[in-house]
Amino acid sequence: MGCGQRESPKRGWAVWVTGLPASGKSTVTAALLRRLEARGVYAEVLESDRLRQVLTPQATYSEAERDQFYRAMVYIGELLSRNGVNVIFDATGNRRAYREAARRVIPEFIEVYVKCPLDIAMRRDLKGIYAKARRGNSSTVPGVQSIYEEPSQPEVTVESNELSADEAADRILQALVERGLVPGR
Fold first, then answer.
1. Could you tell me if 176 and 156 are in contact, meaning their C-beta atoms sit under 8 angstroms apart?
2. What SS3 class is residue 2?
3. What average pLDDT does the structure give for the chain?
4. What percent of the chain has pLDDT over 70?
5. At what angle do helices 96-105 and 63-82 cross, to 10 degrees?
6. How many other CB atoms are found less than 10 A from the CB of residue 3?
7. Are 125 and 29 in contact (CB under 8 A)?
């Protein structure tokens, strides 16, 4: 190696946990994180609500703003993974194009679809997202006024109304093990 050059670290992998708002993405992500940490595997969670506080603190959720937000989120995920950090995207990513952008730039990428019927997501909604849509206080809720494009070929699909978060996390972990990204037991 020449002066000023350094060896690149082993690339990290990425898992994008997608689904409707209130489908159970964050709960599944937390269960997956616990399982990974128990194996000595660490990942950075890019959670859309927390990242929005930094990137778009006065979020309007317009299509243009979402495009910009998800471009930034994918860039951060790619930057982390390129530098050896495993990444879990905990984000609706309502357009396939957002998730496909991450797939294109992160070689070891797994898309997880937390499938949940809209009526169940609406009942689970602790943040009041769907209630705001019903009252007319929000006009961009994915699955209601804005489109949510289901993944066309996710590596893992979990039915959140049929599986517990722990069972869903076990399925995701198994996919990571099968790809050789996480050591098996």
1. no
2. coil
3. 91
4. 95
5. 20
6. 4
7. no
Query: And the tokens for 82?
Result: 């390129």
Q: Read off the pLDDT of residues 39-60 as tens digits, 9 standing for 90 and up.
A: 999 999 999 999 989 998 887 7
Task: Tell me the two tokens of residue 163.
Answer: 């599986």
Radius of gyration of the chain from Cα atoms? 17
> Residue 182 gets which letter from DSSP?
S
Report the distance separating Cα 176 and Cα 173, nearest Å: 5
pLDDT reading at 20 higher than 60: yes
**Spatial distance between the Cα atoms of 61 and 139, rounded to a whole number of angstroms:** 9
Q: What is the CATH number of domain 14-178?
A: 3.40.50.300
Domain boundaries, the chain: 14-178
pLDDT one-digit tens code per residue, 90-106 = 999 999 999 999 999 99
Residues 6 or more apart whose CB falls under 8 angstroms from that of 175 comprise 110, 155, 156
